[in-house]
Each structure stands twice: as C-alpha cells, then as structure tokens.
Amino acid sequence: MKIRTVLLLALISGNVFAEEVSKPLLEYVPDMTSPAIRQRVERFLTEYLDTPKHSPEYRQAVGEVFLRQLYFCDDTAKPERTLIHDVKMVNGEKTISLFRRGRQESFSIEDDNRYFEDAMTFRDKSVIALNWRVESEDYEGSMWSTGYPGVSDALMETLAKITTLERLDLCNSWITDKGLVKLAPLTQLKSLQFSEINPLSGISPRFSFAVFDSLHGWVNLEELLLASVRQTGADSASLFRALPNYPKLRKFSALGLELNRKNMEALTSCDKLESLDISGTLTEPCLDLLGKLKSLQTLRLHLRTNGHAVELPPLPALTELFLTVTDADQQSIVISKQPILAEINLSPYAKHHQLVLTDLPELTHIAIFEREILSMEARFENLPKVTRLQWHRYTGNPYEQDVDGVVIKRDGQQRDKLRFSQNLLDAVLSLPALVSLEIPCPLEEGVDLDKLSAHPALKTLELHYVDLSNSSFRFAQNLGSLWLVECRVPDDIFLEDVLALTHLNITAADGTGKNVTVKNAPFLEHFTFTTGYRSPKHQLESLVFEGCPELWWFYVDGDGAKLRLLDLRGTKSPRYMRFFACATNADTEILFD
User: Fold this and answer.
1) Which of 23, 119, 140, 389 has the fewest CB atoms within 10 Å, i.e. is most exposed?
2) In this structure, are residues 364 and 341 in contact, taking their beta carbons and an 8 Å threshold?
3) 112 CB contacts (<8 Å, ≥6 apart)?
C-alpha cells in the first residue's frame, strides 16, 4: 500500500516546507541519515531554537522529536493532514501542530495550546511542551498496528534530554516502568498527563504505580493525570508515597487506588490541590481526611465503599462534586455544610439509596445519574438556590426500553427500575428556587404531579416514561416549557390557559394521543409531536390551536394517514413561520387565517 502526504504547510507564518512523500507503510520511519531530511531538520532547528543556549544533545533530541511527532507522523487513511506552525499562543508561546479536519478547526489561535492534538510548543526559543497523541483516536489501521516507532520506552531517553520541558502529554502510549523512570531528569516538569483518549484503541501505559518510588525529583509538578493507567490497589501505596514530594501539585487523577487512612494522609499532604479525580476501594473510613484540602475546588470520587458510609467533611473552596458509588445493596450519601458548592453530580449503583443534602447555601444544580436503583429516599434542607434538578437514566440503548419505563429488556434480562415516589416529590417541592425539573421514571401510585402547579418558580418540566393517560395536565398551568418523552398520553390532550407556555414537545408512547387541542397559549412558540422509539405510527386525528398567535415552529412526524383536521387559525400564517412540517394526507382539512 502506498501513501502520499503533504508535509509542513505553514498556514500562519508563511514559511513553507513541503514535499510529497511516497513509501511503503512499514518503511515509513524517520531516516536521520538522509541528507534531504537533515537539511529540513536543520532549517527547523535554526528557526526555532536558540543555538548558543542549547547543547548539541538537546538540539539532536528536539530534531528527532520533530521528525517522529510531526514530520513523519502520517495519517495514511486521511491525507488531508497538514502542519501548522508559528501559531501565536498565550503567554508568549507559539506552537507547531498537526491539523486534521474535524479535530482542531474549532480552536482559535488564542486557545490554550495543550488542547492541540500533536504539538510542540516553544517559549523563548526553547521547547516547553509536547502533546503527543499521535493517531490515538485512529485505532484501526493506524501507526500502532503498523510498527510505527511512536511513544515507547526508547523514546523516553530522547525526551529526557529536552530538559526545558514543562508540560508533557503522552496519552495512549505504551510506556513501561523502564521508560517512565528515564524521565526523572525533567525537573522543570509542571504537567504530566496520561489521560485516556480512546479506550477502544487498546493503547494504554504499561507502567505500574511502583515506579513512582524512583520519581521523587519532580518538585515543580503541578498536574499529574494518570486516568489511562490501569492498575490494582496493591501498587497504589508507591504512588501515594511519592505525592508529598510534589509540593506544588494542584491537579491529580488516578484509577484503581486503595483508599485507606495512610494513603489518604499522603494525598492530603498536597495542600495546594485544586482538582482531585480518584477511583478506588475504601478499605476503611478515611474520607474525613479530605477536610485538609482547603483549596480543593473540584472533586471526583469513584468509589467501591465496602459498606462504609459516604460522608464528606466541609471543604471551604469546593464548587463541583462528582460522586459515583459502585457497590452495596443499600447506600447512604450525606453531603452538607459545603459553603460554596454549586454543582452536584451523583451516580449511585446501590439498589436502595438514601440521599441527604443539607446546608448547601450556594448549590444551584443537582444531577442524579440513576443506574440500578430500585428505591430512593431524599431529604433536602436549606438549599435556597437550587434551580435545576435532573434524574438521568442509564438504561442502555433506548430502543431496548419498554414504553412504560418499568422494565428494561437488555441482553435477555429484565430489570425493575426506580419509581418516582411521594417522598421524592416532597423533596422537589422543598426547593424554593427550582426552575427546571427532570423526572426520568414512572410515578409511584398516588403521586399527584398537579401539586407542581403550586410551585412558585418551576418553569421547565421534562417527564420520561410517565403514564399520563388519565392526567388533566393542570401541572402545566404555570410552565414555560413542557417535554413529554416516551410518555403515555390521553387520547384527547387538552391544554387550556397555559399562559406562560412557550415550548410544548410530546413524544407519545404506544401510539397514544389522537386529538390535541391547545387553547389560549398566548406565548407558545414551539410545538413538536413525535412517536416513541418502539411505538407504532402515531394515531393523530386532529390538531387544533386557538389563541396561539406566536406559534412559529411546528413539527409533526409520521405519515399522517389518519390526520383529518389541522387547525392553525389561531397561529401565525405559514408565510411568517420559520419552520413548518406536518405529515398530512389527501383528506386532511387544513385551516389557516
């Protein structure tokens, strides 16, 4: 197989080094002895490096990285890749980066360069950053399966000679302990990242946490991100022992940790931590030690609790909390007395769950990603600023979801899911500032949604899989936006005097909903009616709008085989509608003013 690539097209600076290269794929590797290649490397080094400042070894290492990462980094399946250089960045930095359509075209030149995929960044004619993600997203047919000499142990010895490096991103690499330890001389390193780019690639670092026993010299390290490193808790003690040697650490992430008091003591000695993302097993109660992290702003915990309670100490700087609990049939989570916490994201796996949120004066957003829960009790107290409450369902492919939401069929199994109880409704009604509410499950018998009409602030309601076949829709009277997703609705839907409603979106389950009448909705702008994923074609017979002068977005899907009346006399005339789509038939009577 032959390949052609146009290299080194300078889109910004006007400097153009371009050549068409054609070689068999397995031979497509840097040849440092080639006079033509050496000439191009020398031109590059002369332009970008301060020759008197750097040693010959430094220049040689940078030249090799330039060849490997940029000049010879070929995307065989997508030859439109080009090289951009002299992109002006913040803080006096400039970068050379590979560009491929769809990956980077949304970035402006003022963006932080660390988000460029394959890049070399300079400041004061020295290399300060390498982002090396070469083809990590193209796991089929990419260089990783063709013998390309990419990010490996052998390369680490070369990188170690670039002693000015401050940021190093080696996502989806194959580095082992032998390779990582070679980076010990990089004492100016501020950021080391092994974050996961594409888990399907099968490419991940092979080093163990034990290697950190030999890496205590990174005293300037501010970010250590190990999200793609797959380890077990047995080796995590070495990683925790190393953390006190990184006194400037502000951001840390790692998976597969053993969380005990000794390890957590070492972690919390990094008192400048602002962002913490850890996954592991609680072998004893130790979360109280997080209270030492007075600067912590973002906390992500993915825990196997072994039955230990999850209760966080007060964290004075915490603004975002992401908490996943992956075991136990019964689990209690208590979050309280966090003075500036603004957002909570919970992913509980316990079948029976108790959630207590109290004394969170700045909290505005609660998101609960419901997985295996059968029942939940909630108590909300002193949450004066919560404006948005969401329950998200993790039920897999929506095409496998029964229309009533009670039974999920997937891989031949049936699972009962959560029902929205009176306790949860009471918790919702206790949130005085709530503006947006999402309910992702059927209602428990006796739960009356019409009570929501008395809520003084609620404006947006999204219901999933709820049986509304006997509903009067009084709960919609004060709403501005109503979304009914995969809900059973009455044959005759009648909404009247919905004086604040601007958006009405109905996805009817089981082919329900034959006649829809909206009367006196002076601010209604958007109307959508569609059928559910597994539902038959809609059975609509009539659509009538009276007193809806602002309606300009109107959509009904399906073939309209049964639609006999479409009455839009109370709306804008079609010539003023920016979007109008409705499935009708030859016998449909369509009325306009």
Assistant:
1) 140
2) no
3) 89, 90
**C-alpha to C-alpha distance for 127 and 120, rounded to whole angstroms:** 7
Distance CA 209, CA 40 (A): 40
Q: What is the DSSP string of 66-109?
A: IIIIIIS---TT-TT-EEEEEEE-GGG-EEEEEE-TTTSTT--T
Is the model more confident about 400 or about 286? 286
Using DSSP's 3-state secondary structure scheme, residue 425 falls into helix
Average pLDDT value for residue range 61-80: 62
Q: What is the pLDDT of residue 352?
A: 74
Question: In the structure encoding, which two tokens stand for residue 268, read together?
Answer: 């919390």
What average pLDDT does the chain have? Answer: 78
Helix, strand, or coil (residue 434): coil
Angle CA 58–61–66, to nearest 5: 125
Residue (of 566, 466, 552, 461) closest to 508 by Cα position: 466
pLDDT of 359 > 90? The answer is yes
Which of 42-46, 126-130, 495-499, 566-570 comes out lowest in average pLDDT? 42-46
How far apart are the C-alpha atoms of 570 and 554, rounded to whole Å? Answer: 13
C-alpha closest to that of 486 among 504, 470, 506, 460: 506
CB 221 within 8 A of CB 196: no
The DSSP bridge pattern shows strands 413-416 and 407-410 to be antiparallel
Strand pairing of 460-464 and 492-496?
unpaired
The answer to whether the CB of 441 falls within 8 A of the CB of 464 is: yes
Q: What are phi and psi of 80, to 5 degrees?
A: -80, 0
Let me know: does 120 contact 95? Beta carbons within 8 Å. Answer: yes
Residue 164 falls in which region: left (phi positive, over 0), alpha (psi -120 to 50) or beta: alpha
Query: Which of these, 236, 143, 136, lies nearest to 194 by C-alpha position?
Result: 136
CB atoms closer than 10 angstroms to residue 2 = 8
Q: Are 292 and 266 in contact (CB under 8 A)?
A: no
Burial class (CB in 10 A: 0-12, 13-18, 19+), 202: exposed
Q: Which residues of 104-136 are buried (b: 16+ CB within 10 A; e: fewer)?
A: beebeeeeebbebbbbbbbbeebbbbbbbbbbb
Residue 98: strand pairing partners: 83
Tokens 């932080």 map to which residue?
Answer: 112
Strand order in the sheet with 310-311: 310-311, 330-336, 352-358, 375-381
pTM of this prediction?
A: 0.82
Residue tagged 């972690």 (tokens): 267
Among 65-74, 506-515, 540-549, where is mean pLDDT lowest?
Answer: 65-74
Task: Count other Cβ atoms within 10 Å, centred on residue 330.
Answer: 11
Three-state SS across 263-319?
HHHHHHCCCCCCEEEEEEEECCCCHHHHHHCCCCCEEEEEEECCCCCEECCCCCCCC
